[in-house]
Amino acid sequence: MLCRAALLPSLRSSGQFWRQTDVAGSHPCLLAPNLVLRNESARGWSNIPFITVPLSRTHGKSFAHRSELKHAKRIVVKLGSAVVTRGDECGLALGRLASIVEQVSMLQNQGREMMIVTSGAVAFGKQRLRHEILLSQSVRQALHSGQNQLKDMAIPVLEARACAAAGQSGLMALYEAMFTQYSICAAQILVTNLDFHDEQKRRNLNGTLHELLRMNIVPIINTNDAVVPPPEPNSDLQGVISVKDNDSLAARLAVEMKTDLLIVLSDVEGLFDSPPGSDDAKLIDIFYPGDQQSVTFGTKSRVGMGGMEAKVKAALWALQGGTSVVIANGTHPKISGHVITDIVEGKKVGTFFSEVKPAGPTVEQQAEMARTGGRSLAALQPEQRAEIIYHLADLLTDQREEILQANKKDLEEAEHKGRLALPLLKRLSLSTSKLNSLAIGLRQIAASSQDSVGRVLRRTRVAKDLELEQVTVPIGVLLVIFESRPDCLPQVSALAIASGNGLLLKGGKEASHSNQILHHLTQEALSMHGVKDAVQLVNTREEVEDLCRLDKLIDLIIPRGSSQLVRDIQKSARGIPVMGHSEGICHVYVDLEASVEKVTRIVRDSKCEYPAACNALETLLIHRDLLRTPIFDQIIDMLRVEQVKVHAGPKFASYLTFSPSEVKSLRTEYGDLECCIEVVDSAQDAIEHIHKYGSSHTDVIITENEKTGEMEVENGIEV
């Protein structure tokens, strides 16, 4: 059974923003690293379409689900001040910046069109100017100050515009050098809020960006913080967001350029439902328009010009303009090295902004419901849990027609799409006999579940009148991931119910109709004692890898499927134990003293009855002295009649003049009407073969010799 033995600050949101500035320059040279804009009416850009961006305008729908982000072609990455700068705000975080450039380059080389909105000029310039000030101190002052006093020498407060002027060229040179390592050219564009209020400058900006993208150049957009114009009127109410900071600049550019995705990197993981760092704080996975009423915004970050409220405002504006948005942490050392690529791959990183709100609960909410329901389930009497399982078994037979009809839909869709191999189609298929067998199995679980929870395993007297007991208790919330086997759902549900565990189920989409009705029947059975929520079926488009990251909500993961599925989940699980299983490379050994009547019946049943099962025969081992005997001929004739494709092992092939196709590997799980036949010299040889090539799943010896059988049993083989 699925039990374990047990003994009785304030919200500091990140908003890295640009100062509002002015710029003057010349028409950009596309090969130069630094680009600025000037209103050049003589040149005229009449051939460049002018884009007006009211709130109601959409250049296309934003992505509804994270999994669709992999299709993003044009992407803007906004790097806030806290991401680009060091903790002391004097200089750049070079390692972090190099990692970001590497990720952007990787996506650019995949054929995407990448743009960067960056901070960092002020911090880089501050570092340079402080260095210059120290160097400019007179030698006499340095000599008379003494070593300790020199260290404490006061540095005057540096004006931000001067820092920007000193740091702009160095920042761009750094980007240029980093992108060059990946054979990518980068070009800088300086903009201000005034550029978005001037129609001709907007046309120039739009045309320049399109031309750079056409030439496979990464535009690096920055504000010219060396000059600061008077604040422009806030035009948000007119349907156009004002460029007051980095985030609004990135949102404005994203919509202007019809961008598919805007990634806003900050120094927090995303949006939280309460102050980050507090005990109850939970990351908001998906944020919908209208949800901002339920969020409390805090102060701005240690650097930058704004806060999370401005960030959300810019993200929602971009979302309404047709651009998908993700706000994520770009400073965390464990994820910053792949945060951008993870987002584009659709992984659960940061907060994803979506206009499509699912009708049901999120997977996090389902896990919480399963935990609460599981605790109520564990509090029931053993007889009550058994009643639930008995009732579920009855429902499987009573609702047989509805179940088979739903399963028929799954089979028809799978056959129409042609995405499932024949073994998987067989696993997907349900039948009256399967449902009857399921019901019988569930009743057996119910009958044996009386002492699953609360059984005393060990009792130790520690001192007088003090005893220590080891008692079975539920594990908590189980996540069971299974492929195209809908019959797995009631089996696992019954085990979870018997052991008082909450259950989160993730089935294959090819069995969606079957899983839905089986889950409905499971919850109907649970409702008889008011614990309906204890078993939850994940219907959202959650990736398995994302589910494996819910370490605060899930206590154990159990994958039911191929060995590749098990390996993938073991690799993806972070901080959650995985109860994996081995491959189903099962052997049947026909001993020299085997019964003729038993052999063909056992081999037929183990291979042909349900070849897709994990305990089906995959390798048939035959004693060499049985070759060219009636018993061997009967086995071959039976396999031929059952249309089993035979592969010859190396030794077996050496005995034949014209042999079947030789097996590529003796460690093959066919899962179909296929098997390997190999020859062994003795029972001991068979044992060694099984230990070398088997998976310790299910292995059988057919013999009438009691001594040989005992030897097999000692080696863990059924007789």
From TrEMBL:
CDD domains: AAK_P5CS_ProBA, ALDH_F18-19_ProA-GPR. Pfam families: AA_kinase, Aldedh. Residues 73-329 form the Aspartate/glutamate/uridylate kinase domain. Transmembrane segments: none annotated. GO terms for biological process: L-proline biosynthetic process. One of its GO terms (cellular component) is mitochondrial matrix. It comes from the Eukaryota. Its main location: mitochondrion. In the N-terminal section; belongs to the glutamate 5-kinase family. In the C-terminal section; belongs to the gamma-glutamyl phosphate reductase family. HAMAP family: ProB. This is Delta-1-pyrroline-5-carboxylate synthase. It comes from Podarcis muralis (Wall lizard).
